[in-house]
TrEMBL record:
Natural source organism: Photorhabdus bodei
UniProt cross-references to PROSITE patterns, sorted A to Z: N6_MTASE
One Pfam family this sequence matches: MTS
UniProt-listed SUPFAM superfamilies: S-adenosyl-L-methionine-dependent methyltransferases (SSF53335)
EC number(s) per entry: 2.1.1.297
Signal peptide span: none
Record keywords: Methyltransferase, S-adenosyl-L-methionine, Transferase
Name of protein: peptide chain release factor N(5)-glutamine methyltransferase
Sequence ranges assigned to domain Methyltransferase small in this UniProt record: 105-193
GO BP terms, alphabetized: methylation
Lineage, uppermost ranks: Bacteria, Pseudomonadati, Pseudomonadota, Gammaproteobacteria, Enterobacterales
Gene3D superfamilies xrefs: Vaccinia Virus protein VP39
Known catalytic reactions: L-glutaminyl-[peptide chain release factor] + S-adenosyl-L-methionine = N(5)-methyl-L-glutaminyl-[peptide chain release factor] + S-adenosyl-L-homocysteine + H(+)
Amino acid sequence: MSFSLKDQVVIDKARELLSEAGVWDVETDLTSLIDCYLERRCKDRARDEFMLAVHERCNRIPLGHIVGTVDFDGLPLTVGTGVFIPRPHSQVIHKWLENEYQTPPGAVVLDLCSGSGAIGLAIAKRRPDLKVTCVEYDDVAFQYLTRNIYRLANWAIKADALKADLRDWQAFSQFNGSVALIVANPPYVPERQEILPEWEEHHPYASVYSGDDGLDLTRLIIKQAKQLLQSEGWLVIEHGESQGESVRTLFLESGFSLVRTIIDEDISDTTGSSVITVGCKLI
């Protein structure tokens, strides 16, 4: 098998790194990685695996669970069965941060219900000066979160991981009154609502549904935010388009100011709208 000069340079560097890491069978592992990412040796096998993947997708297995990665804001995140696959819709959060709110340098940022870490890591990529902590409670999701954090550290993208239950107020005591920004894409589908099988059947239940109206976890996040945010700190929560009025009411009842709901048609698609509600803790 012949490779271009650029490929050969990368392969030689990979061999060196694998050897330094103590991998016990460098050449076998290197061959497998080349076969997966650079060039398939057996075209018949490649075609067979391609059709297996197609049939899985026809069974409505989420694409990310099939291929094992998903691109979010230019980040190649590792995902798989048992973790929620981030959707492009969440990028409305980053558009809002860039266009409307400049987080102060060195500020503390929490990404709650982080899952694979997409939102928090994208913030860390765009603003390496911020102190980003991604918070997740589910065991499987937390494994993907930490894996992505370690993986993207090779791109100088830095974030911390915290395994904590949002109901455990003590677990967040270190952040009380010190957080400048809280972002969250919590589960927000009402339990009786029918949705596409990719989410209804093939995603973890707790990553999709949240009580009769879909807002149980949103209520909890808003309560936590009041304790964690500093004065003039901001809370940003993603939710369904039909929940806008309800979420704004929850913000206002908890004393948030400058509350508004943002719908981004450019990121919305046939699976749903890209929607966030934002609010500021002024005192």
